[in-house]
Design a protein that fits this description.
The chain has 296 residues and is an alpha/beta fold. It is built from 14 helices and 8 strands. An 8-stranded parallel barrel has the order 1-2-3-4-5-6-7-8, surrounded by 9 helices. The radius of gyration is 21 Å and the shape is globular.
Length: 296
Amino acid sequence: MTPQLVTPADRLRARLAGGAPLLAAGCHDALSARLAAQAGFEAIHLSGALVSAVTFGLPDLGYVGATDMVEALGRVAAGTDLPIIADADTGYGDPLQVAETVRRYERAGAAALHLEDQVMPKRCGHMAGVRLAGLPETVARLRAAADARRRLVLIARTDALNAAGEDEALRRVAAFAEAGADAIFVEGARDSATVRRAHEAAGGLPVVVNYSAAGHAPEPIDELARAGARLALFPVAAALAGAAAMSAAYREILTGRRAPEPPLSWADFTTVLGLPGLAEEEERWRPAASDREESS
């Protein structure tokens, strides 16, 4: 008998084990999560850079903390039952704090999180000035995370490829696998050769690749999948499209003194929000006319 995959983390773990590579849509709230699910995505990614942008209007320079991410996780989880892969930056402290971050993320609905090997305050991995934490310190964080999680998928990320070179990145990947990571994420890996070497260094663990607009695009995911890539993150693609559309709409309102013709009708918008089903429930629960007359 096939075991039942009870939690989103179980489903994510099963998807990473085989089949076509998994694509995760970047989302930051319940609406974007609903839209991603409606489009057909099987997983959601919650980026710290995106949370910083939509919550504070600030770039990815370490402004977002664990509480901000847990709150954002709750908003995203309200809109979907898809597995959510959440950015946990460096874990927000030493191993003790990392363990608590893992527990809080899991309670908030994360199916997976990725921990990176920068020092705090961290910065976007595509920016200049990234500083790496020592390998023993990073391994200690990962071990704490592995011990604290219940079912959550633990993804270990290294920013060493751009900051210190491929040899150091591969050394770290091997250590992360030994520390209990379920998958590895080499930031900046863009080609099949690099992905294959990372996959081998990690003892065959699934490789995560990042299709972030902040850096150069990797090769197509189907090509990287043959080298060991199992998960592709698209953290900000939809947010950039949405920001451009909002900016255009605001400009048109000011110049035309009217609302632009919406590409999505209000009826379609409320359908995404589940209004038809909620209206049916409301009608089913509404007291009959005779009941209302008796109570008046």
